[in-house]
Write a structure and sequence with these properties.
single chain, about 700 residues, alpha/beta, Amino acid/polyamine transporter I, Rossmann fold, 2 domains, five-stranded parallel β-sheet, three-stranded antiparallel β-sheet, 26 helices, about 5% strand, disordered N terminus, transmembrane helix, membrane
């Protein structure tokens, strides 16, 4: 059966890679750029439009503020990029914002950042895929009619591509990303030549339309609020910047230097593209409205519901290249495709962050395990499932989904940069070198400026978008926070409960006629109980067996084994593909081949839990292993239970159910014993009495 399921798995995902091949999956800068920066690079396709849409509330005259808003976004982009360049040097482990906040602000702040990033990664997939489907649907009606189904199908496709490994998915995503970037730069350059050198007049498709201002003549606080709202909308161009700091471990060596270089390159490209599109939109008189059917006017009359408002980048491309031209079609296709691929930023950031959280015991340990292709497969599948559910609930409507966006990323930006300020304050207390102190003070000023900026954006986003859907993102953050806190509390309690005492129990090996194996992962109470129980079974030979899936853990196990002086020999099985079940099965079979008449007894320590959800966190490897061992001839499997405290609650519930289900205990109560009715007749009793009288006394 396993072979039958293995064939399609290998076709879809590819052959398994050995652990020592991990270095071959690391990314060079040219591949890391499209893998980790596709989200911020693609956001220039809609961020300029978001700025103009907000400003259109006050009419075309408010468009004059768009260059200044672009300057503010550029300043913020450079500030954030500069801050994250310091992050990747100071914290290269891949923890990114989570590690910065945890180290400098405490575990609660770190968990808040992690919750915000996890929500933002899920939304990145949902928004990017939905937006791409809507762009594709303008050319293919079938996609519009079934956009939810098509969006989920694209999520499945991206999931399979990422399960094959980040290097292979990066190669697939590199071409369209670079085509999009090249197309935008060619458009900016050709537009500048036509406008400044050749003196041509370029007009966007909406240049001849006017805008009906919903709130014309804004001034004072109302105008300031509108500009802040437009600025916060334009900051959508910054989404995904943090992914590189979370993905440092995926870079080739020198990791920090390559990640910092990629950050700078990404920031330069995104800023140039964003400003170029804003400038060309102003030069070609692009007009946008939040409700185009009634707010866009042609000769004083609304254009009506039949009018399709194209994105800013499409209108600019039509003005520069000509609508329907070859370069226009290429750029339009690359834009739609890169929006799909923007979700790949989340497919790399979410699993890496999930792995770190799992290592810190905030998420199930399965998220820390690499799959066959050395990618964090469980995290990829979890992200895909959450994004697919969200896409289905919102009907793949990017307009509704984008209201949930941005909140999480600016929570992480703000807390991360506050954490970096504390980081520099702590180092300045001990640093005496004047040159290093000057560099630290400059870095602190950059981080403080970034924290102020991003905090302002976060406040504006919450104020303007809360009732439009931002509350859903906040609710998701709360759910993640509470769930991860509960998981950490559970793991801590279990760890304290099963911690081995300094004085081990009796280690004398007792004789037996079977070869016994005790499976060992760590030296704790369940392991010691399994060892002592195996000794009592009078084994002919007894050995402890562990599987080497992590060299650091295996080394720690050997040292603890030797420190305690445990007399049972410890055998470590190699596992180049990080499997647990197969090496043990192969070892058991080899023992059976050496002595076919002997039996092999395998002792497996297991936890006994009292709640259904705890089963998801424990005993998964034991269940898979028992399922295989039970079908191996000549092998006896023994579960050595260790009852966790929560299992006592299960026992009490079982006793209550048994008492309540006692037959008749509730309905009738206790039934008193009734005397049997005498069915003998009077004639029979007289005959019996006469017989007794005739019987001799000695016989009676």
């Amino acid at each position: 059966m396993s072979k039958l399921t293995d064939v399609p798995k290998r076709i879809l995902i590819g052959r398994a890679l050995r652990s020592d091949k991990l270095g071959e999956t690391l990314l060079p800068k040219r591949i890391a750029l499209p893998v980790f920066a596709s989200d911020p690079l693609s956001s220039v396709a809609y961020a300029p439009g978001e700025v103009l849409l907000v400003l259109s509330v006050a009419g075309v005259s408010a468009y004059t503020f768009s260059p200044w808003i672009a300057v503010a976004v550029v300043v913020l982009m450079f500030t954030v990029v500069a801050s994250y360049r310091q992050n990747v040097h100071a914290y290269p482990s891949g923890g990114g914002d989570y590690e910065v906040a945890t180290t400098n602000l405490g575990p609660r702040a770190g968990l808040t950042v992690a919750s915000a990033l996890l929500v933002d990664y899920v939304l990145t997939v949902a928004v990017s895929i939905s937006s791409g489907i809507e762009n594709l649907g303008s050319a293919i009606p079938f996609v519009v009619e079934h956009k939810t189904l098509c969006a989920v199908a694209v999520i499945v496709l991206l999931t399979l591509m990422n399960l094959r490994g980040v290097r292979e998915s990066g190669k697939l995503f590199a071409i369209p990303t670079y085509v999009f970037v090249a197309g935008v730069f060619i458009m900016i350059a050709w537009g500048a030549i036509r406008g400044l050198v050749m003196g041509d007049t370029m007009k966007a498709p909406t240049a001849d339309l006017t805008i009906h201002a919903e709130q014309g003549g804004l001034a004072g606080f109302a105008l300031v609020f509108l500009l802040l709202r437009a600025f916060s909308s334009g900051c959508a161009a910054l989404t995904g910047v943090e992914a590189i700091s979370n993905g440092v471990p995926a870079f080739r060596k020198p990791k920090s230097k390559n990640a910092a270089t990629t950050l700078a390159l990404m920031g330069g490209l995104a800023v140039t593209m964003f400003c170029g599109i804003i400038a060309l939109a102003m030069a070609t008189n692009v007009h946008m409205a939040e409700s185009p059917a009634k707010d866009l006017l042609r000769n004083g009359t609304p254009v009506g519901a039949g009018f399709t408002q194209d994105p800013v980048i499409s209108q600019v491309a039509a003005a520069v290249f000509g609508s329907g031209s070859f370069l226009f079609v290429v750029l339009a296709a690359a834009t739609a495709l890169v929006l799909f691929l923007a979700a790949n930023t989340a497919y790399n950031g979410f699993p890496l962050l999930g792995s770190i959280l799992a290592q810190d015991r905030y998420l199930p340990r399965q998220l820390h395990t690499r799959g066959d292709r050395l990618a964090f497969s469980n995290g990829i599948v979890l992200l895909a499932g959450a994004a697919a559910v969200l896409t289905y609930i919102y009907g793949a409507d990017s307009t509704r989904l984008i209201q949930l966006y941005i909140v999480g990323v600016f929570v992480s930006f703000t807390l991360s940069q506050i954490g970096m300020v504390r980081h520099w304050n702590r180092h300045l207390l001990t640093e005496k070198d004047p040159a290093k102190r000057r560099r630290m003070q400059s870095s602190r000023a950059i981080n403080a400026f970034g924290a102020t900026f991003t905090g302002l954006v976060l406040a504006v986003v919450l104020l303007t978008k809360f009732t439009h859907g931002a509350w859903v993102a906040l609710l998701g953050m709360v759910i993640f926070f509470v769930t991860m806190t509960a998981i950490r509390r559970h793991y801590d309690r279990v760890s304290d409960e099963i911690a081995a005492d300094d004085t081990p129990d009796d280690d004398v090996v007792r004789p037996s006629r079977v070869h016994s194996l005790v499976l060992v992962s760590k030296v704790h109470k369940p392991t010691l109980r399994a060892l002592n129980y195996a000794k009592l079974m009078r084994s002919d030979t007894l050995e402890a067996v562990s599987v080497d899936v992590d060299q650091a853990d295996t080394r720690a196990l050997r040292e603890e084994w030797e420190r305690r002086g445990i007399e049972v020999p410890l055998k470590v099985l190699a596992s180049p593909y990080r499997e647990i079940t197969r090496p043990i099965i192969d070892h058991v079979k080899s023992l059976r081949r050496q002595s076919p008449r002997d039996a092999v007894s395998v002792y497996i320590p297991e936890y006994v839990v009292g709640h259904w959800y705890e089963h998801l966190l424990h005993n998964q490897s034991a269940l898979r292993l028992k399922g295989r061992l039970l079908f191996t001839p000549g092998v006896m499997v023994t579960s050595v239970p260790w009852q966790l405290d929560s299992s006592e609650a299960a026992k009490k519930r079982a006793r209550k159910r048994a008492e309540w289900n006692a037959p008749g205990a509730v309905r009738r109560g206790p039934v008193a014993a009734q005397p049997k009715k005498d069915k003998t007749t009077q004639k029979d009793r007289a005959a019996q009495k006469d017989k007794q009288e005739k019987t001799p006394a000695t016989e009676r």
